[in-house]
Design goal:
about 250 residues; mainly alpha; Leucine-rich Repeat Variant; 2 domains; 11 helices; elongated; ARM-like; cytoplasm; ARM-type_fold; protein transport; repeat
């Protein structure tokens, strides 16, 4: 028989959970911590609604290991926070403040963009994007603060798998012209266009997102007057402006 989503969650909980949970003990090795975090991510991501109870238990260790010195442990933990948030959906509310604080700490640390932790940072940015999507459904009043902060961290540049996910989420937000991501009186438009210009036609976006960027730029440009166009050209510089114009 073919197992459906969630069919394996109860057997996992009854047999493997205690063993793998033990791998998260502070005295365990980095390899043990990574293995446990990845295992829980897989169960939560693929276990459907049955995995929600595991996601709830997972939040605390994920936030603890999100700032681990080992880059693989850190990356697995911050990715897991986003996975758990998606699983919990409306039930994520009681974890949201703590989760955001630990992700912001990861993203804004002095070594966040270095070679060692760059992929972890991209995954943390992606997880904040997933949390924003939950806020859009259940806590819209938080968006004017969180969305511009998230935008300020873009583009994601290091993780070749997660960066396209991040920039696809960016388009999800930008395609709603009433979104708080644009800022008051479109004050964030220069930053938005700068990010789009930087990632366009690179490995940081997939083909579908590239098409969405082109369509969005057409919508934005149709609403600009000559003065606004000149101001944007001056602010963006010739390289980014030229790249945007070429689309």
């Amino acid at each position: 028989a073919v197992l459906s989503k969630g069919d394996y969650v109860d057997p996992f909980s009854n047999t493997l959970f205690p063993l793998i949970w033990g791998y998260l003990h502070p005295k365990g090795s980095s390899g043990m911590h990574t293995a446990a975090l990845i295992a829980f991510c897989e169960v939560i991501e693929n276990g459907g609604s049955a995995a929600k109870r595991i996601a709830e238990k997972f939040m605390e260790p994920a936030c603890i290991y999100a700032t681990d010195e080992d880059p693989t442990v850190r990356q697995s933990a911050v990715y897991g926070i986003g996975v758990a948030a998606q699983s919990l959906d409306s039930g994520f509310a009681k974890y949201s403040d703590g989760a955001l604080k630990c992700l912001v700490k990861v993203i804004t640390s002095k070594d966040a963009r270095g070679e060692e932790y760059g992929e972890s940072t991209d995954n943390a940015i992606s997880s904040v994007g997933k949390i924003i999507k939950i806020f859009a459904k259940y806590n819209a009043k938080a968006l004017p603060e969180v969305m511009p902060m998230w935008l300020s961290w873009l583009p994601a540049k290091t993780d070749e798998e997660e960066a396209p996910v991040v920039h696809s989420m960016l388009l999800d937000f930008l395609e709603d012209f009433k979104s708080p991501i644009y800022g008051k009186n479109n004050s964030n438009l220069v930053k938005i266009l700068s990010v789009l210009g930087e990632v366009s036609k690179t490995e940081l976006v997939d083909e579908r997102t590239q098409g969405r960027i082109k369509a969005l730029l057409g919508r934005i440009s149709s609403g600009l007057n000559n003065q606004q166009v000149n101001e944007l050209r001056s602010s963006l510089g010739p390289q980014i402006w030229g790249k945007l114009q070429a689309m």
